[in-house]
Amino acid sequence: MALRFYNTLSRRKERFQPLEPGTVKLYTCGPTVYDQAHIGNFRTFLFEDVLKRHLLLRGFNVIHVMNITDVDDKTIRRSIEQNVSLKALTDIHTKRFFADLENLRILPADYYPRATDYIEDMQATIQQLIRNGVAYETEDGSVYFSIAAYPDYGKLAHLKPNEMQSGERVQSDDYTKDNPMDFVLWKSWKPEDGPVKWESPWGPGRPGWHIECSVMSTKILGDEFDIHCGGVDNIFPHHENEIAQAVCATGSTFARYWIHAEHLMVDGGKMSKSLGNFYRLSDLTDKGYHPAVIRYMLLNSHYRSKLNFSLSKYEESRSALERITALRDRLMDRQPDFAKPENVVITDTGESILTAMDDDLDVPGALAVIFDWVRAINGRLDERKMAKDDILNGLFTLDLIDRLFGWLPETGADRVPADILDLVARRQAAREAKNWSLADELRAEIRERGWSVKDTPQGPKCSKEI
After folding, report:
1. By CB atoms within 10 Å of each CB, which of 114, 126, 229, 435 scores lowest?
2. Burial code of 332-348, b = ≥16 C-beta within 10 A, e = fewer?
3. What is the pTM (predicted TM-score) of this model?
């Protein structure tokens, strides 16, 4: 099956063909670093991670840009509320974001442009829009985009022209689909902005949110690139405005495929602090929930379907992951010298998994293949019907699953901390001395530190618990 994605622009699945054969230029909307990202944000970031992983497994070179929004209404307001500089605030939350990415095993982007590093480029683009007759300056030194000057405005969100209120203006960085007005490109400085301002041809101020992504994406990836991703909440007004600005400034088509993840629901409703169901990753890990299981929970449905996240399903998800890791342990017991290959080896089962994912990232279809396979391989192991080549193919398949979904904890003595290895050695010595109570105490201590130890004919093996 050819690789196909649902393109929000056309509202249908389209065969994916990059501009440059073998290379995919990918832009994903990153965090606004006024606070820690929450699990709703990470539902989108994880879908984008699996998209990227799948493209890599299909042999593409992926050039990935994820922006950091470090100046907008929210960041300015929060920095003033906390009486800290904009840079101090955004540096803190950017660092926390990168820590969350690492904990969730999200592959790093190639570029993380920060909006404040592209102010001059944004001003140059705004000047071009004014020259092209689609933007205008107001008396207070702000600059607005005129949606009436761009006949294709609304094509991404599929807005009807007679529903638009062209000619009015909105200076807020965000607004609703029911309110499509001329939007701000450059916001003149106001006292409530505090010290946040840059000099410009129109006076002191700062860029509007929407121009930031248009400029950063095209400066790094070029005027036209392959895929632009984000959550469905970004379709309007943010992505709609990105298209308008970029097309009118460059004359290009901008992004060719627009791929959006649906909303995350929590316990069947909207995530809310007042309801006690608002979660950041650190909120969950501090309570002992494992990042690999959280990753599984945020990925085990189709990205275009609303996903209901509930901690009541945690054990069910952990059990599903343990079925996969337990199979890996069984296969590794039969092939203890197995080393992950530098390049992926695609077995017949691996190809079936990737074929399911070729159809608009059909994760449920891929999971059906995976768990049918796990059940079949366990049956063959029980009946001792696995030859050495079968064991090797099984480990290659598990390696592909991990490269695609990033769920499996790493194994191997070189990855286990020295203090854990010392506890494992002390426990083994206690077992050999038949001091079972001490061995049990040491096993409990190892588990408390997040690791498990399994006794095998080849000696104890240690792995990260999930």
Report:
1. 435
2. bebeeebeeeeebebbe
3. 0.89
